[in-house]
Amino acid sequence: MSKMRVYEYAKQNNTSSKDVVTFLKGINVEVSNHMSTISSDVIAKLDNHFKSDNKSQASMKSDKSAEQRSDKTEHKGKKENKGKSNHNSPQQNKKNHQNNNKPNKQQKFQGKKGKKGKGNKPVGNSQPVKKETPKHITYHNKLTVSELAEKLNKEASEIIKKLMFLGVMATKNQDLDDDTIELICAEFDVEVEKEIILEDTDFDKYIEEDKQEDLIERPAVVTIMGHVDHGKTTLLDSIRHTKVTAGEAGGITQHIGAYQVENDGKKITFLDTPGHAAFTSMRSRGAQVTDVAILVVAADDGVMPQTVEAINHAKAAEVPIIVAVNKMDKEGANPDRVMQELTEYELIPEDWGGDTIFVNLSAIKGEGIDELLEMIVLVSEVEELKANPHTTAFGTVIDAQLDKGRGSVATLLVQNGTLHVSDSIVVGNTHGRVRAMVNDLGKRVNNAGPSTPVEITGLNDVPQAGDQFLVFKDEKKARQIGEARQQKQIQENRGEQTKVSLDDLFEQIKQGDMKEINIIIKADVQGSAEALASSLRKIEVEGVNIKIIHTGVGAITESDIILAAASNAIVIGFNVRPDANAKKAAESEKVDVRLHRVIYKAIEEVEAAMKGLLDPEFEEKVIGQAEVRETFKVSKIGTIAGSYVTDGKITRDAGVRLIRNGVVLFEGEIAALKRFKDDVKEVAQNYECGVTIKNFNDIKEGDIIEAFVMEEIERT
Ligand SMILES: Nc1nc2c(ncn2[C@@H]2O[C@H](COP(=O)(O)OP(=O)(O)OP(=O)(O)O)[C@@H](O)[C@H]2O)c(=O)[nH]1
């Protein structure tokens, strides 16, 4: 059996497209919606699942022997599963069935229980196991059922059976996730280890582990968090003024996103980004920079929503929290209430038997700041924060921007090693040499050790906050890795950039990604463009608006496509075609261009797409173009167009369009295709031919004959 669409399969098998899509996603087959095309091997997998359900005998198998074997195994397994129904409630069975790829915790548990239930009658006992089961296996990336079987020296059917008991229906070519691999291996008492293969662009590949004796104490990196208006900024300012301005003549000249203060000879680094940024954006990029979180709670306001959010962020990052009860100078200040409220979030003061440090302060008056700093030092001592200053520097970008005069300027927090001026460095996807380094006091420095924030210049581009950096001994290596990382990033971005297309419109609407559909209309005459625009605007689909961002007369041009790409729009051509440059641009920019000759069909298509009912089983594919060089009028035959094939080919059975100045004059069929006097099936590029079009004679020199075929589209 060749390919078919999800909805066709669903219809044939009396099930819903949604169930089919859910099942396929469950077995890691990539499908986007009911329109996705599925290949014969996927159909076989579906048959295994849905036909065994229906007990339907209709045969749609393609890959006979292999798949049928696993079919049998599944049926058998299913019976055994049924036999164990006293272990699984009907709901559980249903759940297992629906979710039949990745066992959830409950399913895993059921699986184990199921095994126990079978007592000393192990699965697969009927077959001799030929080779010994290994004690330990390793894998990287992914494993299919049969690959796992091979590693375990088992038959694939044995693994499939085990999977059955875990509530997972699988065929031998199916990929298994890490959890499932672990569970199966546990069933056979085999230790399993996943190898992580580092790519050349991964920093981890170049970072050497520090020797214990090289590690020395480093300053704590502190982030201040809390609800809006509870005094984060005031506290940061207050610490800076009491501690920095006092000691440093000239005061703070620089605001670089982080600063250091000294308390009793010990340094503390504060990230000057109040709020959650240090946690949210940086952690989402895999960077963990904060050692201690200060939770500011206003004594007169108590615990508020963002207080709770802050607690959750700090806990998720496993960072110790010090509570700063602020605004103690205010009349309504009630620190006991704050303590009471925070007990709910497992932040219990030492006085009450917990281990959370609470400091009462007034940021505005500068009271309690010293005590807070002492407590930070105390906590960091407990945490035993250490780093090796004698290695190449590694760390994270705190902030970065493009400065008109200095170019790319980035604030880096050195987390290990020491950063030097003129070091070759890769920062995120950028690279360069450290040209100049400035500390938080605006002083030029030559070195920056662990936990020190410095602003650097010399990068080829602007990195992003949360990016990591690493120094390389060799400048060439740094450039090579920086460029490779940039290339990788470009490729990843390209993959993510999905332009809106009618085929996936419904999916995007459903997911709430699409509230407005931008459309560009090009038509042969202004009247049609307007008529089409006003009809499209009238389409009503709940929660989604149609926005016509441009209408015009004439062929679809490259600039229409560029506008569409920039505004994520669909282009509808009514009686017009894209010119050659527009075609190329549409392909490279992945802009969906829909061509119509009947207004209501264009409207129907957009409406159907918005409702998820789009049914384009076939897509038109232009196979070639010929230019009319001369015309001959022959009575009885009509006009023969002496043409030259400029692109692709013209075939006898193709559909044709006659295009004059980018406007379609006629669409129909070829009556005759000749080379000299002979009828031919096709004429290739750079050859001359004679074409007559059925029921159409108004052909002129310079017209374009476009040949097209209808092809089943393959979109997944
Ligand atoms: N009375 C009193 N007012 C304070 C104290 N700390 C801050 N404030 C005031 O509270 C208000 C908010 O302070 P900010 O420091 O801007 O608060 P924030 O938490 O940084 O606020 P956002 O940046 O908006 O999240 C300002 O009007 C401060 O003057 C304090 O200790 N006592």
Automatic annotation (TrEMBL):
One of its GO terms (molecular function) is GTP binding. It is found in: Cytoplasm. Residues 217-386 form the Tr-type G domain. Gene3D superfamilies: 1.10.10.2480, P-loop containing nucleotide triphosphate hydrolases (3.40.50.300), Translation factors (2.40.30.10), Translation initiation factor IF- 2, domain 3 (3.40.50.10050). Residues 220-368 are annotated as: G-domain. One of its GO terms (cellular component) is cytosol. Residues 61-74 have a biased composition (Basic and acidic residues). InterPro entries: EF-G-like_DII, IF2_II, IF2_N, P-loop_NTPase, Small_GTP-bd, T_Tr_GTP-bd_dom, TF_IF2_bacterial-like, TIF_IF2. CDD domains: IF2_eIF5B (cd01887), IF2_mtIF2_II (cd03702), mtIF2_IVc (cd03692). Residues 53-138 are annotated as: Disordered. It comes from the Bacteria. Keywords: Cytoplasm, GTP-binding, Initiation factor, Nucleotide-binding, Protein biosynthesis. Residues 75-85, 110-119 have a biased composition (Basic residues). Residues 86-109 have a biased composition (Low complexity). GTP binds at residues 226-233, 272-276, 326-329. One of the essential components for the initiation of protein synthesis. Protects formylmethionyl-tRNA from spontaneous hydrolysis and promotes its binding to the 30S ribosomal subunits. Also involved in the hydrolysis of GTP during the formation of the 70S ribosomal complex. Belongs to the TRAFAC class translation factor GTPase superfamily. Classic translation factor GTPase family. IF-2 subfamily. This is Translation initiation factor IF-2. The lineage of its organism: Bacteria, Bacillati, Bacillota, Bacilli, Bacillales.
